[in-house]
Design a protein that fits this description.
With 364 residues, the protein is an alpha/beta fold. It has two domains: 144 residues, 7,8-Dihydro-6-hydroxymethylpterin-pyrophosphokinase HPPK (Alpha-Beta Plaits, 2-Layer Sandwich), CATH 3.30.70; 194 residues, P-loop containing nucleotide triphosphate hydrolases (Rossmann fold). Helices cover 39% and strands 18% of the residues. It has twelve helices and twelve strands. Strands 1, 2, 3, 4 and 5 form a five-stranded antiparallel β-sheet that branches. Strands 9-10-8-11-12 form a five-stranded parallel β-sheet. A hairpin with a 2-residue loop joins strand 6 and strand 7. Helix 8 packs antiparallel against helix 9. The protein is elongated, with a radius of gyration of 24 Å.
Length: 364
C-alpha cells in the first residue's frame, strides 16, 4: 500500500447554490477510493479579492489523506470542478461555481506544471488560514517554516494579494532603539531594495523637542510629515520597484498623541489624514518588538546627541502606542519580530528574515 499523505484543500464558490456546491465537492472527494476525507472547516462568507465586482464567496478548508501524488490529485480536483460545472476563464480570480486548490501537500514544496505547493498566496488569505487553523493550527508552512496560527495572526482578519502591477514597500516599525535602521539598511544591502530613511538629521526642531521644548512640537511633526509624504509618494510604486523604509507612516499619530496639545492634535490629525491619501501603502509591515528599557540601553550606547535626554517613561508610552497600533493593524500583513532574539548586523540573520519578507512581497 502506498504511503498516505495529509493534504489540505481550499474550497470556494460564488455562483449558483454556493453552499450546496461546496458540500457536493466534499462528497465527491470522499467518494474517491484513493482519498479519505478526514474533516472540513466551517463554511465562511468572504468578499472577492481586489474589490472585484462579483458575488461574495463561500469558503472552507478540507483535510484529506491520499495515496496519490500531487499531480494525480490535481487531476482529480480538476475533474470534480468540471463535474461541478466550473467554466474555465483566462481572467484572474474569476467567478466560479466551485474551486478546489491544494494548499499543503504534506510538508512538500512542489513546482510542477499548473501546480505550486504550498499555494503561493495562502499565507495572505484570512479566509484560508482561518479554516486551516480550525483544523490544524500548528501545521507548518513548508516555505515560511511557521505555523498556521502565526500566519493567520499577521493578517488581522483581512485578505491580501500580491499585486504585480505595483512596486512593493516594506515598512519597518518599532520604538526608538529597536533596530529599525539597522534592519532596513541590511535588507537594502542584501536584496537591493531602495533604502528610505527618516530625515532625523535634517529636522531643525527635533533636538529641542527631545529636550522637552513642546513649543516647536507641531513644527517638528509637520516637518516629518511633509518629508515622509515626499519620500513615500504613491507614484513611486511602479512595477519592479522595491523599497524598504525604516519607519511606518502610521506611527505619526503615536507621536502626535505624546507631543501635541489637544488643539494642535486635532489640527494635525486633519492635515495628516489629507496628506496620507498621497502616500503609498506598504505591502508588508515588520514590527520590531523590544522592551522599552532595552531600547533605552541601546539609545544610550549609540550616543546620538539629540537622543541623550530621552527617558524611560517616554519610551514606555511609545511602546504602548505601537502595541495599540499593531493590535488592530490591517493595512497589510504585519510581521512581529522579537528584536531581542535577532542581531540584524549579522548577514545570516538578514538573509533568513529577508527570505520570508521576499516571499510575502512576491520577490522570492
Amino acid at each position: 500500500m502506498a504511503d498516505e499523505t495529509v493534504v489540505y484543500i481550499g474550497l470556494g464558490s460564488n455562483l449558483g447554490q454556493k453552499e450546496a456546491n461546496i458540500k457536493k465537492a466534499l462528497k465527491a472527494l470522499s467518494a474517491e477510493t484513493s482519498i479519505k476525507l478526514i474533516a472540513s472547516s466551517s463554511i465562511i462568507e468572504t468578499k472577492p479579492l481586489a474589490e472585484k465586482k462579483q458575488p461574495n464567496y463561500l469558503n472552507c478548508v478540507a483535510k484529506i489523506t491520499t495515496s496519490l501524488e500531487a499531480g494525480e490529485l490535481l487531476k482529480v480536483l480538476k475533474r470534480i470542478e468540471s463535474e461541478g460545472d466550473r467554466k474555465e476563464s483566462a481572467e484572474k480570480w474569476s467567478s466560479r461555481t466551485i474551486d478546489l486548490d491544494i494548499l499543503l501537500f504534506g510538508d512538500e514544496i512542489i513546482q510542477i506544471d499548473q501546480l505550486t505547493v504550498p499555494h503561493r498566496q495562502m499565507h495572505l488569505r484570512s479566509f484560508v488560514l482561518s479554516g486551516l487553523c480550525e483544523l490544524a493550527p500548528q501545521v507548518v508552512h513548508p516555505v515560511l517554516q511557521e505555523n498556521a496560527s502565526v500566519l493567520y495572526k499577521r493578517l488581522n482578519g483581512k485578505d491580501f494579494y500580491i499585486d504585480t502591477d505595483k512596486g512593493k514597500l516594506i515598512s519597518i516599525a518599532g520604538v526608538i532603539g529597536a533596530g529599525k535602521s539597522t534592519l532596513a539598511t541590511g535588507l537594502s544591502n542584501k536584496f537591493g531594495f531602495e533604502l528610505i530613511k527618516e530625515s532625523y538629521e535634517t529636522n531643525p526642531f527635533m533636538q529641542r523637542v527631545y529636550a522637552g521644548d513642546k513649543t516647536v512640537a507641531l513644527d517638528s511633526q509637520l516637518y516629518f510629515l511633509l518629508s515622509r509624504c515626499e519620500q513615500l509618494k504613491e507614484e513611486n510604486l511602479t512595477p519592479g520597484y522595491f523599497a524598504v523604509s525604516d519607519y511606518i507612516m502610521d506611527k505619526e499619530m503615536i507621536y502626535a498623541e505624546l507631543w501635541l496639545d489637544p488643539v494642535q492634535r486635532q489640527m494635525y490629525e486633519k492635515i495628516n489624514a489629507a496628506l496620507n491619501k498621497t502616500v503609498a501603502s506598504p505591502s508588508l509591515a515588520v514590527y520590531l518588538k523590544l522592551a522599552p528599557d532595552k531600547c533605552l540601553e541601546r539609545v544610550k550606547k549609540r550616543k546620538r546627541p539629540y537622543e541623550q535626554k530621552l527617558e524611560l517613561p517616554f519610551l514606555e508610552e511609545l511602546s504602548a502606542g505601537y502595541e495599540k497600533l499593531f493590535e488592530k493593524f490591517d493595512i497589510c500583513p504585519a510581521m512581529t519580530i522579537d528584536a531581542d532574539e535577532f542581531d540584524f548586523r549579522r548577514d545570516g540573520e538578514i538573509e533568513k528574515l529577508g527570505a520570508k519578507i521576499n516571499y510575502y512581497i512576491g520577490c522570492d
